[in-house]
Amino acid sequence: MKRSFLFPAVAVLLLTTGTALAQDNKAPASPPATASAKITSGATIKIDYSQPSVKGRTIGKDLEPLPGKVWRTGANKATVFETDKDIKVEGQDLPAGKYGLFTIAGDDEWTIIFNKTWEQWGAFNYDESKDALRVKVKPLKAPAFAEQFTINVDESGEVSLLWGDTETDFTVM
After folding, report:
1. 170 with 135: CB under 8 angstroms?
2. d(Cα 119, Cα 117) in Å, to the nearest integer?
3. Cα(46)–Cα(81) distance, rounded to whole angstroms?
4. How far apart are CA 128 and CA 119, in angstroms?
5. Segments of the chain with pLDDT less than 70
6. How many CB atoms lie within 10 A of CB 130?
7. Which of 45, 76, 139, 161 measures 20 to 30 Å from 34, CA to CA?
8. pTM of the full predicted structure?
9. DSSP designation for 77
10. Residue 32 phi/psi, 5° resolution?
11. What is the largest CA-CA distance in the chain?
């Protein structure tokens, strides 16, 4: 009697374990990515983020960033911007450290936000009073459509946010 119960129990255990492990091997919908560079001023800039994909959706309508709303500048956890030295962003001072990188998108202007609370999920608990710096930049038409959100950091200090048909750049020195 004990054997007849033991075999089905072991079979169920093996099947559920195998299914759970197979699910862990699936690629995430918004995979993690890192952009980094040692810029000409000597500071090392590192940006950790997740890359959502457009997948036929409309950015600004059914996909972030939504006009006038704070965006985590990626997917999943808030994007983390880290500098190992004091820098200037668009000519304004930003001390060395880690920051949540948030944005507010507009047709004619984007606000780039460096928030002192870098460890959080999305922008759900974003608190404007914790902003270390805000700068405004002009978005451009991207040279090619970016199906997957991408951040690039150039050694010259140019940071590019590429998403759909928009490119938004800001300079760090």
Report:
1. yes
2. 6
3. 6
4. 15
5. 1-24
6. 15
7. 139
8. 0.84
9. B
10. -70, 150
11. 78
